[in-house]
Each structure stands twice: as C-alpha cells, then as structure tokens.
TrEMBL record:
Gene Ontology molecular function: any one: ATP binding
Pfam families in alphabetical order: ABC_tran (PF00005)
SUPFAM superfamilies for this protein: P-loop containing nucleoside triphosphate hydrolases
UniProt-listed SMART domains: AAA (SM00382)
Segments forming domain ABC transporter: 4-237
Protein's UniProt name: Peptide/nickel transport system ATP-binding protein
Keyword terms: ATP-binding, Cell membrane, Membrane, Nucleotide-binding, Transport
Family classification: Belongs to the ABC transporter superfamily.
Length: 251
C-alpha cells in the first residue's frame, strides 16, 4: 500500500520556483530518504506534506486520503514532523510533561498521564523526565522528547528533517537506532531529509536525489551503496561522501 504519494508537486515563492514537478511514493512501513544539495527543496517537500505551506500545486496523499492545503486535525493524527534542532523546537519554559500533553489536550485525548509516561518509556526516558525542562536535558534526550511529541498522537507517518545532524556524533547512532526500532515496532512510515549518505545506508530502503527543486533520480539504498547510481549528480554525491569518509579515517 502506498502511504505517501507526492504527485506533480510545484511550489514557488514569488517568481522563485522552489519545487518543480516533484513525484515520489513511499510504501507503508518503508523509510525513504531525500538527499541533495542545500537549497534543492528537500525540507520544502516535507513542509508541504506537514501542512506548513498552502500555495502548492499538485496532489498529495497520505494513506490514500488527498490532503487539502489547510492543516486540519485529521492530518495531525496521521502525519507529524521532527525537526533538526530539538532545542529550538521545544518551548523553554514548559516541562516535558506539558510539551507532551499539549497535543493530547488539543485533540481531546484522555488518559494524559498514562499516555505521557508510556511515550517517554517508548523513547527510552523514565517517567522522572516529565518534570524536567528542555535545558536540563542533553541534546540526545531533547531529540528523544521531540520524537515522543511527534508520536504521542500515534501518527502512521513521520517526516524527519535532518533528525540527527544537530547532535554530537556519539549520540547520532543512538537516535538512528531508536528511529529504526520505533519503525519496526509500530510499522511507521518515514520520509527523511538528510545530507548524510551514511544515515541513508543505516535507515532508508529507498532514496530520491534532489537538485534545483526536482528529483533527478530515485533508487534503492542497495543500488546506491553498490555504486549503481545512474545520474551524474548522484554519482558525485556518492564519490564526495566516500572521499570524506576516507579523509576522516586518515585524519
Ligand atoms: N518561506 C520562504 N520564502 C522564500 N524562499 C524560501 C522559503 N522557504 C524556502 N525558500 C527557498 O526555497 C529553496 C529550498 O529550500 P529548502 O529549505 O527546501 O532546501 P533544502 O534542500 O532543504 O536545503 P538544506 O539542506 O539547506 O536545508 C531555497 O532556495 C530557499 O531559500
């Protein structure tokens, strides 16, 4: 079953075309990576799906339902986004309990304390974290809270915008493993923006490569890792990532 269907998506800001005929399909339970140079439009695709822009053209579907341009409650229950910077995305004067309970209140969901404790456990934090503030957490713990907040309404789809790039290298793998476990346990579908082909290799089944607002190539992660990319730009990305890893190993 196709869970995310982006069909002929176009978006411009004034005269500047940011997305030009973007097409991608993600099957239920799959993890799909979006890579490409800075400014190529990756985050903008996620923002259209998350309901943050209203002036796009094309068709967007989640779980077979066509998305309107306005964000409604039904979409929040179906799709949530996790941002790159967990500190910026958590209110500094709200406790973790308040952060996690807010969506439940908005959506009139019961058993607040039980749901908050259970989602914290799911992301590997014990219930004492409910009473802490974001500045009392490490970067990795903050990102766990951001993931918990995205999951508390039990969506089927997570849109992940560089979910580990603001984190210390030592905790990046922890968060990637957590995301992999959550997907497997709950059958979640991921669409993930990253600039890191290592992250793609670790977490994604398929990957689309964007350049100048369009997808230039879609391929399986296996093909990417086996050097089977066709498009010159994809090959360049793979080569530069390999030489970067080599330089790091030699340094
Ligand atoms: N609200 C906006 N108004 C005008 N231009 C915008 C707006 N949001 C994004 N853009 C432009 O759209 C283009 C695509 O941005 P986007 O953030 O999607 O790129 P990206 O591929 O995610 O890049 P990065 O990897 O650096 O995050 C950029 O040129 C950006 O300047």
């Amino acid at each position: 079953m196709t869970m995310i269907d982006v069909n002929a998506l176009h978006l411009a800001f004034g005269a500047v075309k940011v997305l030009n005929n973007v097409n991608l399909q993600v099957q239920a339970g799959q993890s799909f990576g979006l890579v490409g140079e800075s400014g190529s439009g990756k985050t903008t695709v996620l923002r259209c799906l998350a309901g943050q822009y209203m002036h796009w053209d094309g068709q967007l579907r989640i779980g077979g339902h066509a998305l309107g341009r306005k964000l409604d409650r039904a979409r929040c229950r179906e799709v949530q986004m996790v941002f790159q910077d967990p500190y910026g995305s958590l209110h500094p004067r709200h406790t973790i309990h308040t952060v996690l309970a807010e969506p439940l209140r908005i959506h009139g969901m019961d058993r607040e304390r039980e749901r908050v404790e259970s989602i914290l456990a799911k992301v590997g934090l014990n219930s004492s974290y409910r009473f802490r503030y974001p500045h009392q957490l490490s970067g990795g713990q903050r990102q766990r809270v951001a993931i918990a907040r995205a999951l508390i309404l039990e969506p089927r789809v997570l849109l992940l915008d560089e979910p580990t790039s603001a984190l210390d290298v030592s905790v990046q793998a922890e968060i990637l493993n957590l995301l992999a476990d959550l997907r497997e346990r709950d059958g979640l579908t991921y669409l993930m923006v990253t600039h890191d082909l290592g992250v793609v290799a670790h977490l994604c089944d398929q990957v689309a490569v964007m350049q100048h607002g369009s997808i230039v190539e879609t391929l399986t992660t296996e093909a990417l890792c086996n050097n089977a990319a066709q498009h010159a730009y994809t090959r360049m990305l793979v080569d530069s990532s390999r030489s970067y890893s080599r330089d790091m190993a030699e340094a």
